[in-house]
Amino acid sequence: MWNDAAFMEVAVRLSRRAVAAPNPGVGCVIVRDGQIIGRGWTGRGGRPHAEVRALEQAQAIAGEKLRGATAYVTLEPCCHHGKSPPCTDALIQVGITRVVIACEDPYHEVNGGGIAALKQAGIMVETVIGEAIAREQHTGFFTRIHKRRPLVTLKLASTLDGRIAAQPGVQTLITGEAARRHMHGLRRQHDAIMIGSGTVRADDPLLTCRLPGLEGDSPLRVVVDGRLRLSPESQLAKTAKQVPVLVFTASENKQRREALVKQGVEICNVDTDAEGKILIRTVLRLLAERGVNRVLAEGGAALAASLLGAGCVDRVAWYHAGMLLGEKGVSAVATLPEDVLLPRLEPMDVCTLKADRYTLYKAIS
Asked: Which of 32, 51, 97, 143 has its CA at a distance of 20 to 30 angstroms from the CA of residue 4?
């Protein structure tokens, strides 16, 4: 009897190591005689694929042929020629006997074709084993395919009374060191970090992942800056050649644009609404076209309101600090139009970070 659920759980844990956009971060394990002989996850930028890495490790241990072995994969193996050969071919060529797949791949060049190719080669295929946890892991990729935008997680760090700063334009340390370390880990799980121009001016943030050993995993840094007020002397601009910075703006300020581009900042002009505000849905669509699967929106209040008003918030990562700032403090979310229907939020994860509390919510309506 195969212990499919346990081996698939290992594959899902491996998939969490991947920094793979535009590809989904897939995990794979190869099992023979009840023992794991190969482990793999999608490489940086999408290559090598998880199956290829796991097969290479398995062959180093068990030899060229893997007859009798089972491959556990969190997402249907690809069956088309892209920048890499099909993973279905790799599985077939080494003699894998059985493949267990958690989720089918909705991408139009796969979409059941990988399963069909494996079955045609005489391989036993089992599906939807461990689907729930694998689907959650791949939800950013699925959102990009189905909704033509990335999965958006709104990160808020507020006091108990929902304030993010003591007053407008003033940087206020809300959470403690443990929460900030946790937040750096959250950044590493996303392909892009998005902030508004007000947060840049108030905090001059770096927006990188600064956990030991993960400094190279910092995601794309995105600034929604309608009037192009990002300073060429900001930390973001001065580090743009090391970690990419993309600014969405409606401004035609040639002098500021040239100064930022010289620093390595990429600038993309987008349309605005009747009030002159950048169309956030357009920003998300353009990010999706770049292969961004997951966006972490870190602030501030205006950006949070824009995303909520557009109905584009899928998760809320909320850090609550044990302090109060009162009514003069800045609200975590700016004023929303009266006709906006906000989603109900269901808690997915809760943990205590010394004096602070972290809750991850999922939008369910």
From this structure: 143
What are the tens digits of pLDDT across the range 106-115? 999 999 999 9
Return the H-helix or E-strand segment holding 68: none
What does the alpha-carbon distance between residue 29 and residue 9 come to, in Å, rounded to a whole number? 10
Question: Residues of the chain with pLDDT > 90: what percent?
Answer: 78
Q: Report yes or no: 318 and 361 within 8 Å, Cβ to Cβ.
A: yes
> For residue 342, what are the contacts with CB-CB under 8 A and spacing of at least 6?
308, 336
Spatial CB neighbours of 347, under 8 Å, sequence gap ≥ 6: 359, 360, 361, 362
In the numeric block, the tokens 């205590």 are attached to 352
Collect all residues with Cβ–Cβ distance below 8 Å to 56 and sequence separation of at least 6.
Answer: 38, 40
The DSSP string of 129-171 is TTHHHHHHHTHHHHHHHHHSS-EEEEEEEEETTSEEESSTT--
Strand, coil or helix: 268: strand
Q: Is the preceding peptide bond at 48 cis, omega within 30 degrees of 0?
A: yes
The residue annotated as part of the active site, out of 51, 266, 298, 338, is 51
pLDDT digits (tens, 9 = 90+) for 299-324: 789 999 999 999 999 999 999 998 99
Q: Helix H segments across the chain?
A: 4-15, 50-62, 87-93, 113-120, 131-137, 139-147, 177-188, 197-203, 235-238, 254-263, 280-289, 301-309
Q: Are 66 and 29 in contact (CB under 8 A)?
A: no
Q: Which of 132, 74, 143, 136 is nearest to 107 (CA)?
A: 143
CA triplet 152, 224, 305: central angle to 5 degrees? 55
Residue 124, phi then psi, degrees to nearest 5? -75, 130
Q: Is 9 a catalytic residue?
A: no
- How far is CA 115 from its chain centroid? 26
Residue 303: exposed, middle, or buried by beta-carbon count in 10 A (0-12, 13-18, 19+)?
A: buried
User: ∠ at Cα 274 (273, 280), nearest 5°?
Assistant: 15
Residue 120 has pLDDT above 70, yes or no: yes
Give the other-Cβ count within 10 Å of 256's Cβ: 20
